[in-house]
């Protein structure tokens, strides 16, 4: 009887574990973040609205005071950050352009602000022109060199980016540390990137700078995830939310852990549904489509893909979603040529190894594997270490019968399934 009792007890434990979805893979705990899913107010948004009203009234009474325009613009940027509404980004742009015109493009702070707005819009060449103008003026050169590093990295001008990074070198400076972290990540040295980002986090904590702490924690959440340190990633996202309960990017990171690591699609969808009530951008539809694909729900996948495309047609996002569009369109024969057209535009906008990867991948999907290989060998190999890029490279190698080159890439990809998502596991296995 005692043996039977033990068996029954064990069965109960198994059943309870099954019902609650708990497993050795479990990282997330809904009680950690539940309160962030049901927030009714956002103090940062409320303050931004009040500031806009205040400074707009002052500008209306003194329209010759162009600095007011920059103050209004900075608060519209806050609205964009928290809502994702593209019109707020464009409103920021128009205010900053007006402010720059009023000062005949002679104030470096306003030039840099507009350049950062252009970066957010993926208008990198225009951002570079403004950064160069600011540098020529000469005031606040180190701040401008930080901007120049950022925009040169986006454009794939890595020699120039490194030159600007060296010019601001200071291992006790937060801004330098986050950029040297980015540089090492770009070069495929994630452990060193994490070390520098952790040093930056320490500085932010010592200075008790809330903005810098938020930025550090959320970016470390990403880095830890890429390194397979899922628990550390989760903890960093929670620290971000403790400081800013409305920081949707951190919640999205937790949703990804639930989906990619735990395969808990129901919880991932629940988190995403909460985020999109307040911060709705097109990429969330693609994430929901990805989850639906994993669930084998083709109708739901198509529904979300269509909603993504509809949102792009309804709102003008410029070049901001070119990468997403190439990856989406390249997967289907009927839209592969469209992907190729967009990839060519993207290479012209920002000739980075990642952009050339999109071009190579598009050629591969239109049936020109040789052209894809040529582009990859000239512009991608040894220049980008992103897992998705490496998967494309391995696939292109396979199509060109370069079997010996695939094995080491496949071994690395098997370590990157969390970052790539569960839908990629079977594709990697087939390489």
Descriptive notes:
The chain is mainly alpha-helical and 431 residues long. It has a domain at 318-431: Serine Threonine Protein Phosphatase 5, Tetratricopeptide repeat (Alpha Horseshoe), CATH 1.25.40. The chain is built from 25 helices and no strands. It has helices at 2-20, 30-33, 43-61, 67-83, 86-102, 108-120, 124-137, 141-155, 158-167, 174-186, 190-206, 210-226, 230-243, 248-261, 265-276, 283-295, 298-314, 322-330, 336-349, 353-365, 369-379, 387-399, 403-413, 417-420, 425-429. Helix 3 (43-61) packs antiparallel against helix 4 (67-83), helix 11 (190-206) packs antiparallel against helix 12 and helix 15 (265-276) runs antiparallel to helix 16 (283-295). The longest helix is centred in the first third of the chain and has 19 residues, at 2-20. The relative contact order is 0.06. Mean pLDDT is 94; it is low at 1-22.
Topology of this protein?
Blueprint: H1 2-20, H2 30-33, H3 43-61, H4 67-83, H5 86-102, H6 108-120, H7 124-137, H8 141-155, H9 158-167, H10 174-186, H11 190-206, H12 210-226, H13 230-243, H14 248-261, H15 265-276, H16 283-295, H17 298-314, H18 322-330, H19 336-349, H20 353-365, H21 369-379, H22 387-399, H23 403-413, H24 417-420, H25 425-429
Helix pairs in contact: 3-4, 4-5, 5-6, 6-7, 6-8, 7-8, 8-9, 10-11, 11-12, 12-13, 12-14, 13-14, 14-15, 15-16, 16-17, 18-19, 18-20, 19-20, 20-21, 20-22, 21-22, 22-23
